[in-house]
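Key result, reporting period 2: structure in, sequence out.
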């Protein structure tokens, strides 16, 4: 299984705390806990040539993980087109935290993906579909403190499945883990992961992301997208 972890890698240049929490940046830290005997992980950032998402990289990627926040608009539309095509052709997409406002997530869902937010909150996450592949080995509930509050209404296309619900100590609730299918690709959005908090250090969060990668990994990828005229297979009577 081949994974590409994409991170805009801009906050890391401005806030030393982030690299103290996540050495090498968010992308390198996430790649580090994903590595396994049967997993090959590469990283890519906004500053790389073609954002690190060349045709060759995407063709060689089973699952793309996306973290972005302050530089969504700096991702060129032609890169978004390229990633969209890869998803429709079978590549999986995992969108983390503030990636909800990324161009690619909005493109795939066709909505604003707007929400309420407030940092320095306490979150209790509930697992509401314990029989799903992404929730395997995940407890019924766990706490992240601190985490950034994301609250409803969350303007997203209706999820195929809501796997996790978050409750915050300000009283807000949020659909913290949702899935969709677009074309031949699978998409999972997972809310925890504010850059100055420690959520990605949490073993339960890591377990969920690992499970999500395996769920989103395609049986077949790079499926050709065509719209051919098709001749009948049987003679008309």
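The corresponding designed sequence is given below.
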């Amino acid at each position: 299984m081949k994974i590409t972890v994409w991170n805009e890698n801009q906050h890391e240049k401005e806030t030393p705390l982030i690299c103290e929490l996540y050495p090498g940046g968010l992308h390198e830290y996430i790649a580090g806990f994903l590595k396994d005997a049967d997993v090959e992980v590469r990283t890519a950032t906004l500053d790389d040539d073609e954002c690190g998402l060349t045709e060759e990289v995407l063709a060689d990627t089973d699952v793309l993980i996306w973290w972005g926040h302050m530089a969504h608009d700096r991702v060129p539309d032609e890169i978004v087109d390229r990633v969209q095509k890869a998803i429709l052709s079978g590549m999986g997409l995992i969108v983390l935290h503030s990636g909800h406002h990324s161009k690619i997530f909005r493109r795939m869902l066709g909505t604003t993906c707007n929400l309420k937010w407030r940092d320095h909150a306490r979150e209790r996450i509930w697992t509401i579909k314990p029989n799903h592949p992404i929730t395997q080995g995940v407890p019924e509930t766990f706490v992240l403190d601190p985490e950034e509050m994301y609250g409803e209404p969350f303007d997203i296309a209706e999820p195929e499945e809501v796997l996790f619900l978050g409750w915050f100590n300000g009283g807000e609730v949020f659909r913290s883990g949702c899935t969709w299918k677009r074309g031949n690709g699978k998409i999972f959005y997972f809310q925890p992961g504010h850059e100055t908090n420690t959520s990605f250090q949490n073993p339960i969060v890591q377990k969920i992301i690992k499970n999500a990668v395996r769920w989103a990994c395609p049986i077949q990828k790079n499926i050709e997208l065509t719209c051919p005229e098709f001749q009948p297979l049987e003679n008309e009577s």
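The chain has a mean pLDDT of 97. The chain has seven helices and nine strands. This case is discussed further under Risks and Mitigation.
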